[in-house]
Write a structure and sequence with these properties.
The structure is a single chain. By secondary structure, the chain is of the alpha+beta class. The protein has 13 helices and 22 strands. Helix 1 packs parallel to helix 9 and helix 10 runs antiparallel to helix 13. The protein is globular, with a radius of gyration of 21 Å. The two termini are about 25 Å apart.
Length: about 400
């Protein structure tokens, strides 16, 4: 193995999984995080079957399941009638995966799990409050500038993985375009301690389709395991931040969708822009991009984080082969060649279609979409095919077939 470590910018779940996957191969890694600790604000939580398979290989899956919430189903509702349009059951994939369900496990928990294991390895290093601000590619290595409380230092690495989010410094330093668009509305995520179990205990992942204001409702365990519910709404395009986050406006949104006596105990509010973008290249030479640094999408379907973890696993596998001398360096070209089109096909297309279906205004098209969903859910073959795609098992199989 070369003396220089693989450098990783960003200690979110993708960066931490990449570091762990490399370190378990005996590769030295140096992970940098700009913030003083892992960001524990409410973000992605859904972990699909294909990802659980990968986490099992890294020794993480048992803890993910223990600290998360197993959910084998999801339901798509019509808001106006309060009727279930379709229910999909990942149990039909019992012959396709060891994990015929999703696990709702918040992404900061996953990052912390990986970090805890990294800290046991002598050749793994993690520096918080350390921001990678610049890079320089050389013939045989990459050099980065890192800012921390002591000032700026230069660090050499064999390779650099950019996992520093949608506003990635690494992607910008490479001059790589982030191709796509930003939705005119933003997404408002509200977290409440109020229990929706009375109505939704049988299925904790729910999507309410409506032409005026749709909604997603799902449950997570929370840090203490007692359970929290998250509610996701689109804002109006002209709605200011203060309007969307106003306590009375938040209460009004919740009561319109889920009327009840008394106010909702909202413990967290998060408002964010929503993008559908893919980097023009996922990297070359000694620098590669993974996760939100390489691709962003709306969260309907829970695909973005999962695909980012798949990025981390594939890239770490390829880097390990190169660093051990098992493959020439040009094998790394496969990463961009396959990951980028897979993201477009299985993440961008699917999440865009999910959002369009949820917000469709034309009653004829809505009726057609709803009937198609009903027929898919009722047909065992179509039901399984739908979930193979939704769980990203199909994307993993397509990648494996290309490598064969």
């Amino acid at each position: 193995m070369p003396a220089r470590p693989v450098l990783i910018a960003g200690a979110g779940p993708v960066g931490c999984i990449a570091a762990l996957a490399l370190a378990r191969q005996g590769v030295a890694v140096h992970l940098f995080e700009a913030q003083p600790r892992v960001n524990d604000s409410p973000r992605a939580a859904t972990t699909h079957a294909a990802t659980l398979e990968m986490l099992a290989e890294l020794g993480l899956v048992d803890e993910v399941i223990r600290r998360g919430l197993i959910e084998p189903k999801f339901r798509i509702w019509d808001r106006a009638s309060r009727e279930i349009i379709a229910e999909f059951d990942f149990g039909v994939l019992k012959n396709d995966t060891r994990f015929p369900y999703v696990v709702q496990c918040e992404q900061h928990k996953l990052a912390d799990m990986a970090i805890e294991r990294l800290c046991r390895l002598e050749h793994a290093r993690l520096d918080f409050s350390s921001r990678v601000t610049a890079l320089r590619q050389l013939d045989d290595r990459v050099e980065v500038s890192v800012e921390d409380a002591r000032g700026t230092r230069q660090i050499d690495g064999s390779y650099l993985i950019g996992a520093d989010g949608g506003r990635s410094t690494i992607r910008k330093a490479l001059g790589t375009a982030f191709v796509g668009y930003t939705h005119p509305e933003r997404f408002l995520v509200l977290t409440t301690t109020f229990s929706f179990d009375a109505e939704h205990a049988q299925c904790s992942r729910n999507y309410f389709s409506d032409p005026d204001e749709w909604c997603a409702l799902f449950k997570v365990t929370g840090d203490d395991g007692s359970g929290l519910w998250r509610v996701l709404f689109p804002t109006r395009a002209e709605e200011a931040d203060a309007q969307a986050l106003d306590a009375d406006a938040v209460e009004g949104r919740l009561q319109r969708f889920f009327p009840k006596s008394g106010p909702y105990p909202v413990v967290h509010r998060n408002l964010y822009n929503v993008h559908q973008r893919v980097a023009a290249s996922f990297g070359s030479g000694h620098v590669y991009l993974a996760g939100d640094c390489a691709h962003v999408n709306n969260p309907l379907g829970g695909l973005g984080l999962n695909f980012g973890i798949h990025d981390a696993v594939e890239l770490s596998t390829l880097l390990g082969r190169v660093l051990r001398g098992e493959e020439p360096a040009h094998v790394l070209e496969q990463y961009d060649r396959f990951r980028r089109p897979l993201n477009i096909e299985y993440v961008q297309q699917q999440t865009i279609a999910n959002k369009k279906r949820m917000e469709e205004k034309d009653p004829v098209i809505r009726a057609k979409n709803n009937e198609a969903l009903r027929q898919t859910a009722a047909d065992p073959v179509a039901h399984r095919a739908y979930l193979l795609r939704a769980s990203l098992i199909d994307s993993v199989r397509k990648r494996a077939a290309a490598a064969a």
